[in-house]
């Protein structure tokens, strides 16, 4: 994947739509009991849905990040939740948080943290409940600040 520097409007739009597809793939995976991998759910999605070819690399990248790092991603989200249990999150909020956290923890060269957070808020606005955008913003902001703090301790 290339960094976001110099991405044109069309490429940014493709990435936004790729995130929305990843959300749908995650929802499909979770609604079937989280059996198999997200990659399996992606392949299954391709049997019934047509996804623009130019969005496929970013979807694959996100799905692979989620498959490779899900326990770490979930732990980071859980640590950022205040007075809330991970299991109580709605399926949409959980998926949005996982996608954004994957980008925050493993895509810094690919996606600036503020872009990952803003895109997650947009997904929450489009697919979540009334309180989802504020909730997602608060959790990701806490996660981002904790990561910055930890990075400062290591550096």
What does this structure look like?
The chain has one domain: N-utilizing Substance Protein B Homolog, Chain A (Orthogonal Bundle), CATH 1.10.940. It is 73% helix and 0% strand. It contains 6 helices and no strands. It has helices at residues 9-31, 38-48, 56-80, 91-106, 113-127, 132-154. Helix 4 packs antiparallel against helix 5. The longest helix is centred in the middle third of the chain and has 25 residues, at 56-80. It is globular. The model has no long low-confidence stretch (mean pLDDT 88).
Give a topology summary:
Blueprint: H1 9-31, H2 38-48, H3 56-80, H4 91-106, H5 113-127, H6 132-154
Helix pairs in contact: 1-2, 1-3, 1-4, 3-4, 3-6, 4-5, 4-6, 5-6
Précis, in short:
The chain has 155 residues and is mostly helical. It has 6 helices and no strands. Helix 1 crosses helix 3 (56-80) and helix 4 packs antiparallel against helix 5.
Shape: globular
Question: What portion of the residues fall into strands of 2 or more residues?
Answer: under 5%
* Rg from alpha-carbon coordinates: 15 Å
Q: Could you describe the largest sheet, including whether it forms a barrel?
A: none
Low-pLDDT segments, ≥5 res: none
What is the number of independent domains? 1
Q: Would you identify the CATH H-level superfamily?
A: NusB-like
- Might you state the CATH topology name? N-utilizing Substance Protein B Homolog, Chain A
């Amino acid at each position: 994947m290339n960094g976001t520097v110099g991405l044109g409007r069309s490429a940014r739009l493709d990435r936004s739509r790729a995130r929305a597809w990843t959300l749908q793939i995650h929802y499909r995976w979770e609604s079937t009991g989280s059996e198999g991998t997200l990659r399996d759910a992606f392949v299954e999605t391709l049997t019934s849905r047509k996804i623009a070819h130019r969005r496929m690399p970013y979807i694959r990248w996100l799905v692979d990040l989620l498959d490779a790092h899900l326990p770490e991603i979930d732990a980071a989200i859980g640590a950022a939740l205040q007075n809330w249990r991970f299991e109580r999150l709605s399926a949409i909020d959980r998926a949005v948080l996982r996608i954004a956290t994957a980008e925050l923890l493993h895509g810094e060269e690919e996606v600036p943290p503020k872009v990952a957070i803003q895109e997650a808020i947009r997904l929450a606005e489009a697919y979540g409940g009334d309180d989802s955008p504020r909730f997602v913003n608060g959790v990701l902001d806490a996660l981002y600040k904790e990561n910055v703090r930890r990075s400062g301790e290591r550096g």
